[in-house]
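Annex B. Sample input.
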Amino acid sequence: LTLTFAFIAMSGAMFLATLTLQLVKGYSPLQAAIATSGPIVLVNLIVVPRAPWIMQTFGLRRTIAFGTAMTGVSALAMTATSSTSPYWMLGLAFAFMATSFSVFMPASTEAMMTAVEPEKSGGASALNQITRQSGQALGIALLGGIATVGFQSRFSQTASTIPGVTPDQLQGADASLSAAVHLAEVVHHQVLVLQV
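Annex B, continued. Sample output.
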């Protein structure tokens, strides 16, 4: 269950960060992917090879507890960022997340696989994979859904105050974040033209 919740947090955070980098900061899809995955890959390259030593030195319970705590630290670090925050803050949060998963995942997998008899290891491996996959799907669905509901409620409250926007434009913009960003660009362009 802990593994599922950790994957919910990681997948949801990566999904929303990638959207924010593209729609708010203007990153291309490739730049956003590198910005979210880069810190994770770098930390994994450093920490994962040392995971067996960490597990042997500190034990499975402490390693799992540390990884779980670091997931919380990374979530707190991400909540400290805003649309105006410099990238390094988000990159640091992803590095914390990568640290947590680099020690947490091998330790939790080890705990799960050693808890069953060898002839049941296939089932344990499948269960381990199901918890990860379901956590990833739930993270994107839950956090994406929460973000969409929050956006749509705020948009509907303030959309009528935007001057020079037709109801047709508003109807399309409340359907998705990217459509709202496109509408903002159109309105910004219209304002610039009027100022000239």
